[in-house]
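ugh ok fine here u go
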Amino acid sequence: MNMQSIGESAGIIWRLLYGDNRKWEYQELKNATGLRDRELNAAIGWLAREGKIQFEEGDQQHASALYIELSYYIG
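structure:
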């Protein structure tokens, strides 16, 4: 894994999130992208560092869930 492949994986996630304005669970995102955990985690880190995604912990019913969604600003 290198910067190029991390950037490409981040692009895959970005296009998926951009096309569907909703919250995604980690496993759901993994299945939809076909990325391995290591690739997915690195790409999520890349997008988070750029402020392009946001995270939300699950509620008491879904305490173990991590929701990821696009940070979308109109302005």
